[in-house]
Amino acid sequence: MGKKSFLEQFESEKLMELSSLAEKCSYINPEFYSKYEVKRGLRDINGRGVVAGLTEIGEVHSYIIDENETVPVPGRLRYRGIEIDDLVNGFISEDRYGFEETTYLLLFGHLPDKNELINFEALLGSFRTLPNSFVRDIIMKAPSKNMMNTLARSILSMYSYDPNADDTTVANVVRQSLQMIAYFPLIAVYGYQAYDHYYNNNSLIIHSPKPELSTAENILHMLRPDSQFTKLEATLLDLALVLHAEHGGGNNSTFTTHVVTSSGTDTYSAISASLGSLKGFRHGGANIKVVQMFDDIREHVEDWKDDEEIFAYLEKILTKQAFDRTGLVYGIGHAVYSVSDPRAVIFKKYVQELAKDKGLEDEFLLYSKVEEIAPQVIGHLRKMYKGVSANVDFYSGFVYRMLGIPKELYTPLFAISRIVGWSAHRIEEIVNNGKIMRPAYKSIAKKQKYVEVDKR
Ligand SMILES: CC(=O)SCCNC(=O)CCNC(=O)[C@H](O)C(C)(C)COP(=O)(O)OP(=O)(O)OC[C@H]1O[C@@H](n2cnc3c(N)ncnc32)[C@H](O)[C@@H]1OP(=O)(O)O
Ligand SMILES: O=C([O-])CC(=O)C(=O)O
Q1: Which atom of ligand 2 is found nearest the CA of 253?
Q2: H or E segment at 375?
């Protein structure tokens, strides 16, 4: 073997030494959190978050108080006060797509009437054109294997194309938000096409969006080489976009929008930070992990109908002996919900229909079994306070897989939808001229004296 490069040497020897120092001086005894009454993850053990703000955009409901006792209840989600089930039933029963209507509702506070909706859809359609040379200079250059990083990088670059980028007046932020809502599907899909071309050697496909198509239809049109899709496929993707659009101010990526916006920074900086948050596997990134976990379960569990075999394999995942060895069963559990996540409940009904359509009923059955068994295994091996159930990410990846969407686009699809919630929250933060967010950390460091370098 040749001489080791400086980097290799650093990695193998110095890095291990420095990393053990960093780990040692970063460790905090978990008992101190209860001793100093610090809420880990800014939540109490019942999942109740530290109240950090007020909002009128989304409401996440998971428990009631009965005689001073917290009682978990089936989860409920409201967008601008409207129950998510009512919203979904509304546009589906009228045989319409719902994402544009939901976007209008979340940003402007009321359901659009027919004219407002037509005009708004036309406005989004007219914004669905990236600035000249953006695809060539930003998206095609340095394609990355992770489309969340491609999105974040592209959104940060958008700053250079916006002559009024730093203006944080509401009018300008509304304009930037609508442009980002229109651009996100293009950047994500084209970013994927560039990756697929440069990394996988497949033909480069760039279909221009069509102004008359909905967001969901445009995604399928731009993604598929032949641009073909069925009504059921577009309806399912539209539903997924509606269900992911908003989740209150406290979820990790939206809270990031609030924190970063409160410093007074520009829209592109705030949204790229939220994208970084959403990518994480405990948040939006879980949807890819769920599908990878199911690939692993299908490979290792022989009888998909055998509850005991499934239980035993999930135990192995929980005890870090199988799958990615993080000890997490992805798609299960939630910071707030306990009995159920209403979005997973809605999804499940439609997923069953699509699975039947695609001849994947056995796989749907396996998902249902894991949904039922995983909470028992987690309850058995972890300290449970509020209970766990399937979250929105549990079925979303399965839907995307059935739609033939590549896994690289699963979390970006979450972002294509959640940009709406982030935008509404950024505007709410600006309108209310909030103070800069600045919580406290209690220092528990022992005092030490400065020692001159020769005497250490
Ligand atoms: C859109 C979204 O962001 S939805 C969430 C998507 N994320 C996932 O699906 C990843 C898997 N799930 C998880 O990691 C967690 O359930 C989270 C991050 C979502 C919530 O975590 P918490 O707020 O800690 O949940 P909760 O308080 O109910 O957990 C109680 C215990 O069960 C554990 N637990 C909860 N869910 C899981 C899970 N899916 N797998 C393994 N252990 C779990 C927690 O780690 C905790 O144990 P600990 O105290 O020893 O750390
Ligand atoms: O609320 C949360 O913590 C995570 C979540 O489900 C979301 O952001 O949709």
Answers
A1: 8
A2: helix 361-381
Q: Is residue 17 part of a domain?
A: no
342 and 411 together in one domain: no
Q: Kindly state the DSSP code that residue 327 receives in the 8-state scheme.
A: S
Q: What is the extent of the structural domain holding 99?
A: 76-281+406-431
Determine if residue 177 is left, alpha or beta; phi over 0 gives left, psi from -120 to 50 gives alpha, anything else beta.
alpha
* Ligand 1 centroid – CA 51 distance (Å): 20
Could you report the predicted ipTM of this complex, rounded to two decimals? Answer: 0.98
Same domain, 227 and 253: yes
CATH number, domain containing residue 133: 1.10.580.10
Same domain, 306 and 225: no
Measured distance between the N- and C-terminal CA atoms of the chain, rounded to whole angstroms = 38
Residue 210 near residue 221 (C-beta atoms within 8 A): yes
Predicted model pTM: 0.96
Same domain (yes/no): 362, 418: no
Q: Is 334 a catalytic residue?
A: yes
Residue among 293, 376, 382, 392 whose CB has most ligand 1 atoms within 8 A, to mutate: 382
SS3 123: helix
**Residue 290 alpha carbon, nearest atom of ligand 1:** 9
Residue in 259, 265, 275 with CA at minimum distance from that of residue 166? 265
Average pLDDT, the chain: 94
Q: Dump pLDDT digits (tens) for 7-40.
A: 676 667 788 899 999 999 999 999 999 999 999 9
User: Span 164-169, mean pLDDT?
Assistant: 98
What domain count does the chain have?
A: 2
Catalytic residue, candidates 244, 247, 393, 425:
393
